[in-house]
């Protein structure tokens, strides 16, 4: 009968008792029985060592259903007490206390609760064969595509272990656990296990236990605490950068978008990692914005997202060197000087004008001897360096000097590139070229030397010009038309001249079109001069009225129709015209008759001309007798004196062989 059934039986019996005394006696009896039954036997003990090479043994057991706080235990090995009054459910046994290690021994635990005691069942075990590892600690994880790599501290460095892994997706806590058992691989002090075919974009819950693969009787360790494996960070942070100049320092503000499953971010730059200067020790960044300070030299900054499963690929931002308008030449550096803790020197090897951070040499006070020796061994002759001097000012790096530096200079190795001639004329030509690559300059170019020689003439000497090193074009003038020239161009450093770039040009001859153009300009000049003269004359005529001149009608000479008429002898006829009367006087009748005679004479002359053209010759009788005309004139000779005072005189006309001559009288003169 069980204790509960027995109690019910007694209660039924008590119903028949009527006295209070009897009730009290029964209650004390039940209390005594319950106290005696409060001791519940512990579980069978497990005794083991943590590692195969240890000689210290642990014994563990469990006490499930007790509420007593003053429970003690005694440990028996082969019926001999080894530990007494143990207040916990485990104890440590030194190997020297156990004489028999590789023989089977019987082990049990006796518990004491108040006045009661109870004993566990015994366990037969070989202590030397039993090994139980501790639960896995410091578990780290990383994704390899869809495979999860788990790592933790090795229980034994020389021996792998067997691991049992439980896993399920964190978003589904009611989902049943997946389980795999695999042997670990051991590298130094780390155990590795890979769980295949998981979803790398999901979070997982994982717990692990392990046991020895070398011990004859291995025991499973306790389960590790449940760890959360976040999804893989596949993408790098999306970072934007802004910078501000602050008098030798640049404030670089970085901002990035939050990454899913990311917990922290780490930031690093090449300058502070080398200790130049103001080395920064940063904790992990939990925000998505950060401001850092860098000097004027080129700096590479990386931002990495991180979580328990690993890190993202770095987002690398290049902060180029701050350009200087006119970099000076520095003949001396602080390489041989003693540096304080706040000073840092940098040399950047320049290739075609670009700074290459991978070719940087740094000198700080922390590692002066080693770095100085490294710089002296690796600094090259004839190579251009960009030299920086930084100081730590208020916890921020500040550039106090930047200049160009050669450890040793030489002459250029190459000639100016792409030396060409274009836009030639009959007296000039344009020249252009590209600079000598900086890697081939081997020194600072002071200038270019351009020389020209007329190979078509032995009289002209060689002519040279010095051109600034920053100029890439030049116009060569005062050339001889149709001549042939050899042109050479060399780069010059402080050491000397390099090889020459040469070109031959044929100067164009003068064009005939130029002559015509000159004549056209001359003609235009005369035309403009003539037009101006005419305009001036017109203006003069408008201002000063011109003196009128007598108008003489055009006379058309007689053209004979045949050669016979030309051979006729000249006949002279004299005709005297008297002047007209003044306007105020009346013309006498005799004068009118004289005018009639003159008209008759003209008519006779016209008839003579017509007769000469016709077959019938000879003038008419009226016209042929000159005496009649003369007589008529003489008869009126006395009357002509009245016309001698006329202001306007008529000139005497003389006809000779058909020609008319204007003869003025002395009075007209």
From TrEMBL:
The keyword Signal does not apply. PROSITE patterns: FN3 (PS50853). Signal peptide: none annotated. It comes from Cottoperca gobio. The chain crosses the membrane at residues 515-536. This is Interleukin-12 receptor subunit beta-2-like isoform X1. Keywords: Membrane, Transmembrane, Transmembrane helix. Residues 618-630 have a biased composition (Low complexity). Gene3D superfamilies: Immunoglobulins (2.60.40.10). SMART domains: FN3. InterPro entries: FN3_dom, FN3_sf, Ig-like_fold, IL11/IL27_subunit_beta. CDD domains: FN3. Residues 135-231, 415-511 form the Fibronectin type-III domain. Residues 608-643 are annotated as: Disordered. Pfam families: fn3.
């Amino acid at each position: 009968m069980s204790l509960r059934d027995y109690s019910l039986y007694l209660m039924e019996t008590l119903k028949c008792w009527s006295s209070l005394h009897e009730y009290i006696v029964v209650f004390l009896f039940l209390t005594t029985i319950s106290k005696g039954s409060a001791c519940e036997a512990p579980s069978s003990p497990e005794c083991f060592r943590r590692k195969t090479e240890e000689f210290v043994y642990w014994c563990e057991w469990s006490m499930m259903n007790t509420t007593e706080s003053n429970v003690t235990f005694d440990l028996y090995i082969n019926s001999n007490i080894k530990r007494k009054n143990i207040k916990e459910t485990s104890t440590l046994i030194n190997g020297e206390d156990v004489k028999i290690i590789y023989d089977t021994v019987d082990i049990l635990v006796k518990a004491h609760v108040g006045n009661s005691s109870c004993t566990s069942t015994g366990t037969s075990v070989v202590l030397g064969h039993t090994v139980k590892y501790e639960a896995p600690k410091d578990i780290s994880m990383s994704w390899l595509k869809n495979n999860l790599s788990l790592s933790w501290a090795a229980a034994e460095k020389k021996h792998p272990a067997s691991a049992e892994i439980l896993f399920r997706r964190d978003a589904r806590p009611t989902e049943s656990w997946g389980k795999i058992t695999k042997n670990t691989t051991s590298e130094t002090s780390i155990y590795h296990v890979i769980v295949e075919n998981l979803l790398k974009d999901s979070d997982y819950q994982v717990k692990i236990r392990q046991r020895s693969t070398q011990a004859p009787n291995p025991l499973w360790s306790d389960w590790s605490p449940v760890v959360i494996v976040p999804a893989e960070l596949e993408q790098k942070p999306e970072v934007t950068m802004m910078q501000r100049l602050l008098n030798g320092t640049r404030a670089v503000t970085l901002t990035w978008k939050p990454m899913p499953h990311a917990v922290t971010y780490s930031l690093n730059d090449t300058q502070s990692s080398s200790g130049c200067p103001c080395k920064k020790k940063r904790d992990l960044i939990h925000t998505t914005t950060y401001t850092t300070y860098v000097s004027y030299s080129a700096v590479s900054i990386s931002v990495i997202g991180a979580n328990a499963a690993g890190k993202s690929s770095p987002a690398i931002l290049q902060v180029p060197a701050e350009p200087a308008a006119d970099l000076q030449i520095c003949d001396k550096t602080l390489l041989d000087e003693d540096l304080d803790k706040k000073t840092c020197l940098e040399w950047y090897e320049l290739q075609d004008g670009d700074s290459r951070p991978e070719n940087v040499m740094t000198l700080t006070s922390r590692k002066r001897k080693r770095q100085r020796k490294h710089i002296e061994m690796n600094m090259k002759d004839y190579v251009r360096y960009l030299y920086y001097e930084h100081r730590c000012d208020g916890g921020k790096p500040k550039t106090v000097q930047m200049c160009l530096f050669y450890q040793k200079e030489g002459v250029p190795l190459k000639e100016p590139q792409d030396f060409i001639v274009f836009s030639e004329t009959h007296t000039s030509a344009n020249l252009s070229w590209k600079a000598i690559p900086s890697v081939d300059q081997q020194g600072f170019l002071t200038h270019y030397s351009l020389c020209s020689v007329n190979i078509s003439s032995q009289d002209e000497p060689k002519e040279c010009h010095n051109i600034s090193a920053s100029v890439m074009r030049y116009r060569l003038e005062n050339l001889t038309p149709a001549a042939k020239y050899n042109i050479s161009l060399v780069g010059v450093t402080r050491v000397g001249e390099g090889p020459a770039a040469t070109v031959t040009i044929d100067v164009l001859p003068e064009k005939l079109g130029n002559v015509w153009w000159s004549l056209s300009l001359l003609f235009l000049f005369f035309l403009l001069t003539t037009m101006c003269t005419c305009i001036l004359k017109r203006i003069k005529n408008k201002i000063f009225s011109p003196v009128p001149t007598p108008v003489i009608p055009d006379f058309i000479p007689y053209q004979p129709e045949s050669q016979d008429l030309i051979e006729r002898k000249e006949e002279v006829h004299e005709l005297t015209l008297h002047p007209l009367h003044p306007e105020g006087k009346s013309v006498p009748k005799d004068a009118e008759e004289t005018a009639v005679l003159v008209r008759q004479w003209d008519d006779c002359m016209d008839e003579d001309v017509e007769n000469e053209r016709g077959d019938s010759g000879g003038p008419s009788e009226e016209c042929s007798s000159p005496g009649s005309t003369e007589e008529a004139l003489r008869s009126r000779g006395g009357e002509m004196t009245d016309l001698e005072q006329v202001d306007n005189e008529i000139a005497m006309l003389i006809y000779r062989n058909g020609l008319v001559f204007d003869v003025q009288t002395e009075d007209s003169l």
